[in-house]
Amino acid sequence: MQPLRVVDVMNSPVITVSDEATLAETLDLMLMHKVSGLVVVDHSGHMVGVVSQSDLLRAWQAETDFTELRQCVVSQYMTRDVISCAPHKSLNYAMQQLDRHHIRRLIIVETRDGGRFVTDRIKPVGILSQTDIVRVLIGESNLLGDEDAQDPDAK
């Protein structure tokens, strides 16, 4: 059996939010799509950061005027140093990255030519969460269990 790759498990397409969106718009998108984080992109769709529920909670803890805060742009509060992974990497590699960096999701990216800097060319193509990995691992173990049940020699 071929080892699973990130592309086999990741969620695609990516739900994104503009770096110019307000925190209110960002929160509305999260609620509408029932997700805990969004990839933040610039006007050309290149990744510039990620915003999670944790980022929003930190923003609300730091500010006292919630009405004004809701109108702030997401780029003020997003995480800029994003841990990402290429779609061709092994699922094992992705799990190591999640563990090493103590994060819950990896942004799956492909680089495109034409930007001045490497970060100018990064396009988000998927998201891989811990939950996605657990689901596939449970599914894999269930598949193995089913095969063993059908094979009288497997004991």
Report on this structure.
- Helices cover 39% and strands 20% of the residues.
- The strands form two sheets. A three-stranded mixed β-sheet has the order 1-2-3. Strands 4-5-6 form a three-stranded mixed β-sheet.
- It has six helices and six strands.
- The chain has one domain (6-150): CBS-domain (Roll).
- It has helices at 6-9, 23-33, 53-62, 66-69, 91-101, 130-150, and strands at 16-18, 37-41, 47-52, 84-85, 105-111, 122-129.
- Residues 147-155 have low confidence and may be disordered.
Mean pLDDT: 85
Main beta-sheet annotation: 3 strands, mixed
* CATH class (first level) name: Alpha Beta
CATH topology name, in short, is CBS-domain
Total helical segments: 6
Span from first to last CA?
20 Å
Strand content: 15-25%
* Model regions low in confidence, pLDDT < 50 over at least 5 residues: 147-155
Total count of strands: 6
Round the Cα radius of gyration to an integer and report it: 19 Å
Fourth CATH level, the homologous superfamily? CBS-domain
Helix content: 25-40%
- What is the H-and-E element order? HEHEEHHEHEEH
> Under the CATH scheme, which architecture would be assigned?
Roll
- Please identify the oligomeric state: single chain
Query: What is the count of distinct domains?
Result: 1
Decide which structural class fits the backbone.
Answer: alpha/beta
Q: Order of strands side by side in the largest beta sheet?
A: 1-2-3
